[in-house]
Design brief:
60s Ribosomal Protein L30, Chain: A, four-stranded mixed β-sheet, single chain, about 20% helix, alpha+beta, globular
């Protein structure tokens, strides 16, 4: 069982993952899933695969994600990225990639989550920093 925190820094432009959609054609619903994974997903997957812990995380986890978004010239004095993509859509491809890279059994293990999304400051590339730490349960008396 892995007891140490695990930190990985991934450089790239964070992207959301397309969600399955349902279309209605001639009164019938037709679910459509997107089979192509994004370049962002692939980048996270291969980086996690290369640097994953020796043993995958088991049990409850605390996960911190710090997203650094590209800064447009019109936002040179702003810190917080308050436009799309939103938190759920940024975290989904990252958590799916970590699951497939076998960093943890499943993202349902996440019991505490911290999320930050801001513009990349000078000297830092866009991307994400992920910290995963096991949560320890106190013994009952």
């Amino acid at each position: 069982m892995n007891l140490d925190p695990w930190v990985i820094v991934i450089v790239g432009i964070p992207k959301s993952q397309q969600r399955p959609r349902t279309f209605f054609i001639k009164g019938r619903s037709k679910p459509v899933t997107w089979s192509k994974k994004s370049t962002w997903y692939s980048l996270v997957y291969y980086e996690a695969l290369e640097h994953r812990p020796k043993e995958k995380f088991e049990g409850p986890l605390e996960v911190k994600t710090f997203f650094r978004m590209p800064r447009p010239k019109s936002r040179k004095n702003e810190v917080w990225h308050i436009t799309k993509p939103d938190e759920d859509n940024l975290k989904k491809p990252v958590f799916d990639a970590l699951t497939h890279a076998q960093v943890w059994r499943d993202d349902s293990q996440i019991c505490v989550s911290h999320f930050t999304k801001q513009y990349a400051v000078d000297g830092f590339e866009p991307g994400v920093t992920i910290e995963i730490e096991p949560l320890y349960e106190k013994k009952k008396r």
